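Please fill in the sequence for the structure shown.

STRUCTURE ENCODING:
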């Protein structure tokens, strides 16, 4: 769980789950137990942990650039929330079975270390572009070209249906943001940091947190509340964050139990959402908002 949160901050919540949830599924298969609760906690840990850095999730990266937030200011704002989030996921983890598991892990080795080194280099270039040291277009072009040359098959593994669903969200957001009634409602919803935080967290439950960040950024300068709100809003419904859907699809593909997973996820994630809103409110109050 802690590893998932840490990886979420380092390589984004989505990628952390794509890498670690299949590992959880493999361990569960070898050790003969149902990993549903662990996967649910992992999805929440990835969301909460990813809040720490600008590269942790798409909404952070967007708001980091949109409001030109300094890296130290960003970290100071999000660190208390992330500490709370990790502590809460560890509390949830106490509900896991305490039985010991044992299984054999065959030895393995890196098949193509040179290729791995090249991709690590691309990752570092992307990091430099995120932190505004080099032009972002350099990182984008380099990564795409290297991937086409070395691992073209990666493009065949992309879940285009899932991406398309979220692209439709963006189109929808762009259209409704032009409506006068929406503009009036948004001015009320973004009146101050605390109201912005609460409103963005709740709206994320219906249109996901990345579209919410884009929508709210057109109407408010309360970026502290918005940054907290869209990260808090990753908990709650299954569509509140793309990461939730990724973990869900991986689990259900292997194990089924669609309805059971959704029921347990929604119940536990709703509690996380409520506690996170309370914590966010207290944090902003302490900071004088």
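FILLED IN BY: designer on duty
SEQUENCE:
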């Amino acid at each position: 769980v802690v590893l998932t949160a840490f990886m979420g901050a380092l390589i984004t919540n989505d990628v952390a789950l794509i890498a670690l949830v299949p590992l959880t599924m493999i361990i569960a298969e070898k050790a003969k137990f149902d990993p549903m609760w662990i996967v649910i906690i992992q999805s929440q840990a990835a969301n909460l942990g990813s809040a720490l850095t600008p590269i942790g999730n798409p909404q952070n990266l967007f708001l980091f650039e949109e409001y030109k937030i300094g890296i130290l200011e960003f970290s100071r704002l999000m660190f208390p929330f992330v500490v709370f989030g990790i502590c809460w996921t560890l509390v949830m983890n106490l509900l896991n079975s305490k039985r010991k598991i044992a299984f054999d892990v065959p030895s393995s080795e890196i098949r193509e270390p040179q290729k791995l080194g090249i991709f690590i280099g691309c990752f570092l270039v992307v990091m430099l572009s995120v932190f505004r040291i080099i032009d972002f277009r350099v990182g984008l072009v380099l990564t795409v070209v290297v991937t086409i040359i070395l691992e073209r098959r990666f493009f065949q593994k992309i879940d285009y249906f899932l991406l398309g669903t979220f692209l439709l969200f963006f189109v929808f957001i762009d259209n409704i943001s032009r409506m006068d009634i929406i503009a009036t409602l948004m001015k009320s919803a973004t009146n101050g940091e605390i109201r912005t935080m609460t409103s963005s967290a709740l709206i994320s439950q219906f249109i996901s947190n990345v579209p919410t960040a884009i929508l709210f950024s057109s109407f408010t300068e309360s970026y502290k509340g918005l940054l907290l709100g869209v990260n808090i809003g990753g908990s709650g419904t299954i569509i509140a964050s793309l990461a939730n859907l990724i973990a869900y699809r991986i689990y259900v593909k292997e194990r089924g139990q669609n309805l059971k997973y959704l029921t347990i996820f929604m119940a536990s994630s709703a509690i996380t959402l409520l506690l996170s809103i309370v914590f966010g409110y207290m944090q902003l109050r302490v900071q004088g908002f």
